[in-house]
Amino acid sequence: MATLKDIAQLAKVSNATVSRVLNYDQTLSVGDDTRKRIFEAAESLNYSKSTKKATTTKGKIAIVEWYTEKEELEDLYYLSIRIGVERKLIELGYEITRFFQNDQFDSLNNVLGAVVIGKYSPAQIAELKKMNSNLVFVDMNTLDAGVSCVMTDFKSPVKSVIDCFNEQGLTNIGMLTGQESTFDGVKLGLDPRFIYFKLYLENMNNYHPEWIYTGDFTPESGYQLTLKLLADHPDDLPNALFVANDAMAIGALRALNESNIDVPEQLSIISFNDTSIAEYTFPALSSVKVYTEQMGKSAAELLVNQLATADEIIPQIITIGTTLSLRNSSK
Predict the structure, then answer these.
(1) DSSP track, 128-168
(2) Where is the HTH lacI-type domain (predicted)?
(3) Comparing 70 with 129, which gets the higher pLDDT?
(4) pLDDT more than 70, % of the chain
């Protein structure tokens, strides 16, 4: 684990600034450039140190991010995937060009191919395919669109989280989840973590819809949803809370702290993604470890292999497993 001092030295800021930024301190006035430097330093230091830059360039590959650069700082899951893609492509000898959602994608037809990160509407996918047929998506199942993709497993880790709570004697379980939309305004389906959460608890006859709150996947949304949970259930709070990502969990911890709810004694929390911020929260977050570096590497390798057989692109899906990292936010 990288220390706050390690991150501060790499980002060229103070330890206190690193701590406050990683905890999304709303009272801290700091520019987006500084925040970006800190988050990228934290992610970079938690990656494997074996990456070597190739001495020759084999061509240019694009990385397309479904967020704007500012939005990416609110959800380090996608930032960490992007860093994984970049490191692997550099190691393999490719030059990189980056596109965020508010950029023009016209030059995609001038690159060998693209790793596309995030969620896209059918119209967006069709448009991207027109610009360049050599695509690999990360974090979205695009097999139906005839495009290869890399995904993380959701079913097994959700079961692991619920089993963990039950083993601790925590059977009153709520959830904070999110609803996503693509950049062109198309609403996506239900969060798969929620789908498996609901199915598993229904099979146990222990599903409580009154403890399910839906917002978006940001710290502010996690904060507001938790305040609403506390206001709606002053006398019947759940004793465990599954939060769909670390960013929301950061907000939830802030709301609970302000409301003098002890974590984990009164309410245990387990999150999802286990990004670099999870180890620096107060208390440190228990979280499902998603191997974002491996997701990024796998997407890069899949695209490069696809380029070698461009005459016949056979769509395939790679699913990456997870592990549960238990820290101080759960008993």
Answers:
(1) HHHH-S-EEEESS--GGGT-EEEEE--HHHHHHHHHHHHHT
(2) 2-58
(3) 129
(4) 90
